[in-house]
Amino acid sequence: MIRLLFLLVTTLAAIFVVLSVYGSGNLRAGHQTDETGQAASQESEAATPPLPELPETPASVGADGKPPADLVQAATQTPERVQQFPGPDLRPSPEYAGETPEPAAAPTDAQGPILYVTGTSVNFRSGPSTNDRVIGALEGGAAVEALGPTNGDWVHIRDGGGRIGYISGQFLSADVP
Question: Can you tell me the distance from the alpha carbon of 137 to that of 125, in angstroms, rounded to the nearest whole number?
Answer without folding.
Answer: 9
